[in-house]
Specification:
This protein is mainly alpha-helical. The protein is built from 39 helices and seven strands.
């Protein structure tokens, strides 16, 4: 898929504020939800480090809870309470008092993607000095994250030379089971002497198991609720006098809810010398307090608050654009001075966010008071972000509007770099929000939906979108950067090769003829032309196309296409006996993979297969097996949706295994090839190559013991889940198979690895590189 540096940066931009429960409401009038060192900055960098900053004066200390947590032998400290109970404040106070290394991760809705979650966890670990940055920029889907990246991060935690506390704030932002599977893997690696502290608004999925094992210490709303002394401290910091009787009364009315006490203090300060105006007459106390806090402000300030609540992050220029006015920076300074639930996101006080609870209230008020303007505000925010070079943030706002044409255009433009970054769940979320009907209105976006399905191995969706694209027409300029819809359609059709080599060659030739030398899709078209020529048995033409494709990909900064072309050129060189050229090309491709962290990307597998063949030629058996393991582990991603790619890489691997006398694995790979050919029986010259290898394999009298890499694709997909504590039934739900199938595959994994338990299977898989390497 084509990409550029600018596109990757745009797609990689998180563009969302840190969201979470608020220590300000719980403990002080001015302290932010999370310490300055743990917030996500406007430039989307989470600064994770050890803080020496102490809670601000006026904060209600939770020293007793902190001490109980620190002195506990429990591996998990779970803080579960509704918004406004000071969960984040508790974690911040604990972090300030901690002498162990602190790793802080503030989760938000954009972390509800396995790859994004892993990147946040790895970045936090790196910045806290517990590990390397190797995983931060890695790319891959949920299978890659669970099978490779998560165990690698878990291994770093397990081997940490110093004790640490991993603090996860706002766990409720994670909804997907894939993300919780990643967390389960990481949690299991927390060593004795270290702890995991998690704050969430709802029950934490991993909690029941650890609770049953006696490894969890739990704090709930009752533990975090404040007493009369805490109420007096909050009121005193607001410069409001409160008698013991009044403190007891307001605490009773608010039931110790820290947010309610903070709001009551604001109201009392506004009314001066009056008892806090909190009664039980209004059954919706939260609503009452919020209205009191808002309605006492001038109308222009109320309007500013309501309308800017559509923003995850606020700055003066952005707010001016959204409100179509000026002076927003002054409003923000006044709000910060008045302690109106505004949290600064940088020390220069240029970016802010609203406290989550307050923002939710403001959005409700906006919908009630000015429902007709909500979409307009989101559209203005999108205008500003797009003009500022942040199309991904613009899209997030557009998805709240009915401007589907613009949403579709931006999604189509962002889809290629998003797919390249391995963020397929993000693309799926965008497409799901837009809806199939709107996607179908933009055939170029349907092409990208097809590519996303092909690369994620979703056969049903890939074939659905391919059929739609074949029947569609589009006369405009495609927003994905291709020269025409016909060219983009031809490339998708060529990639899937559903109608055989002749049609693939015609489609690839058409794309090459129409994609300009400077176009972002030119290298893809050349790669496909090379593949089509290989199937036609035209090796010279194939080599020329791959060579031009590699050079073009380097110019366009398309590392995935470059590795594909270099791998094929290396294989052709080895077939000619030109081993030095092959070595040079493979080293180049491997360096690109390392640089861009594409180790488990579907297009990188051929490189590993070629490297294994080269190493075997030089009798370097250890390196041969290492490269074979890398290829075998990633091969489930290569399905019949890319049939020539899937068959050729398995054929290369099977030949290498046969040369190593591992006949069992060679036969396993041949069976997988046969399964692919049942779906795509017409693959030109590749069919003859498979037939010749079949004859060699049948005639072979060699016998050998299969290594662990002989696991089938289905078994490799299941293997990462053995790290979790999911039952066979739960694993079956994840993989959309029956529990009987899971149990059968687990037995097969045990047999092939020579183990008898989950733990042994995971340890052996880690040792041979099937997990985490």
């Amino acid at each position: 898929m084509p990409t550029s540096v600018a596109q990757r940066k745009a797609t990689g931009t998180r563009g969302a504020a840190v969201r979470g429960g608020g220590p300000t409401l719980a403990a002080s009038l001015t302290a932010p939800d999370v310490p300055d060192w743990a917030v996500q900055r406007p430039e989307n960098t989470k600064l994770i480090a050890r803080s020496t900053r102490q809670p601000q004066p006026g904060a209600v200390s939770r020293a007793g809870l902190v001490e109980a947590a620190r002195s506990s032998d429990c591996r998990l400290v779970a803080v579960t309470a509704p918004a406004g109970y000071g969960k984040s404040t508790f974690l911040a106070e604990w972090a300030a008092a901690e002498d162990r290394r602190v790793v802080w991760v503030s989760l938000d809705r954009f972390d509800d993607d396995p790859a994004m979650l892993l990147a946040s966890l790895a970045s936090a670990s790196c910045r806290a000095g517990l590990g390397s940055a190797d995983l931060v920029a890695d790319k891959g889907g949920s299978v890659w994250v669970l099978g490779c990246a998560a165990p690698r991060l878990a291994a770093e935690f397990r081997a940490s030379p110093v004790p640490f506390v991993l603090m996860l704030d706002d766990l409720h932002e994670l909804q997907s089971s894939a993300c919780h599977d990643v967390l389960n893997t990481v949690i299991s690696a927390i060593p004795r002497g270290s702890q995991l502290a998690v704050a969430s608004r709802c029950e934490q999925p991993h909690l029941p198991r650890l609770r049953a094992a006696g490894e969890a210490l739990e704090f709930g709303a009752g533990d975090l609720a404040l007493d009369a002394a805490g109420a007096q401290q909050i009121f005193a910091h607001a410069r409001v006098s409160l008698t013991p009787g009044q403190a007891a009364a307001v605490t009773e009315r608010t039931e110790g809810w820290p947010a309610g006490l903070y709001l009551a203090a604001l109201i009392a300060r506004k009314h001066k010398d009056q008892a806090p105006a909190v009664t039980g007459d209004d059954p919706y106390l939260t609503d009452y307090l919020y209205r009191e806090a808002l309605m006492g402000l001038p109308e222009d300030m109320q309007r500013f608050l309501r309308r800017t609540a559509v923003l995850d992050q606020l700055s003066g220029p952005l707010c001016d654009a959204v409100l179509a006015s000026s002076g927003a920076a002054g409003y923000l300074r006044r709000l910060e001075a008045a302690s109106m639930f505004l949290v600064p996101l940088d020390r220069r006080r240029q970016w802010y966010r609203y406290h989550t609870l307050f923002r939710e209230f403001l959005l409700g008020e906006l919908g009630r008071a000015e429902p007709g303007i909500v979409m307009t505000l989101h559209q203005r925010a999108a205008d500003w972000h797009e003009a500022s070079g942040s199309p991904a943030q613009a899209l997030e706002h557009l998805l709240h509007t009915a401007d589907w044409d613009r949403s579709v255009r931006l999604t189509a433009a962002l889809a290629p770099p998003t797919v390249h970054a391995g963020q397929l769940p993000t693309l799926r979320r965008w497409l799901c929000t837009i809806g199939d009907a709107n996607v179908e209105r933009c055939p170029p976006l349907a092409v990208m939906a097809g590519w996303g399905s092909v690369l994620s191995g979703d056969t049903a969706q890939a074939e659905r979108w391919a059929a739609f694209v074949d029947a569609a027409s589009f006369d405009g300029e495609p927003p994905d950067g291709s020269s025409s819809f016909e060219s983009a359609r031809a490339m998708l059709r060529a990639a899937m090769c559903a109608k055989g080599p002749e049609q693939m060659l015609a489609d690839a030739s058409f794309a090459v003829a129409h994609e300009p030398s400077w176009g972002p899709w030119r290298s893809d078209a050349l790669w496909l032309l090379g593949e089509a020529n290989l199937l036609a048995g035209r090796l010279g033409e194939a080599g020329a196309a791959f060579a031009e494709g590699s050079a073009t990909a380097a110019t366009l900064n398309s590392p995935n296409v470059m590795t594909l072309c270099e791998a094929q050129l290396a294989l052709l060189a080895m077939d000619r006996g030109e081993w030095q050229e092959a070595a040079d090309r493979l080293e180049h491709a491997l360096a690109v993979i390392d640089e861009h962290r594409m180790h488990d990307y579907v297009f990188s597998i051929t490189v590993f297969g070629g490297a294994a063949r080269r190493s075997l030629h030089h009798s370097d058996l250890d390196e041969t097996h290492r490269q074979l393991t890398r290829a075998m582990r990633a091969r489930p991603a290569a399905t019949y949706l890319l049939p020539y790619h899937a068959v050729r890489l398995r054929l290369q691997l099977a030949k290498t295994y046969l040369a190593l006398a591992d006949v069992a694995t060679a036969r396993q790979l041949l069976r997988e090839i046969d399964d692919i050919l049942r779906h795509r029986p017409v693959l030109g010259a590749l069919i003859d190559e498979v037939g010749e290898f079949r004859r060699v394999l049948v005639a072979s009298t060699t016998t050998g013991v299969a290594r662990g890499s002989s696991l089938s694709p289905a078994e490799l997909r299941l293997l990462p889940y053995l790290q979790t504590h999911l039952t066979a039934e739960r694993i079956a739900e994840r993989l959309f198979v029956s529990s009987w199938t899971v149990k059968t595959q687990v037995k097969s994994i045990y047999r092939k690895l020579g183990v008898s338990s989950r733990n042994e299977a995971v340890q052996h898989a880690m040792a041979v590189g099937l997990l985490g390497a």
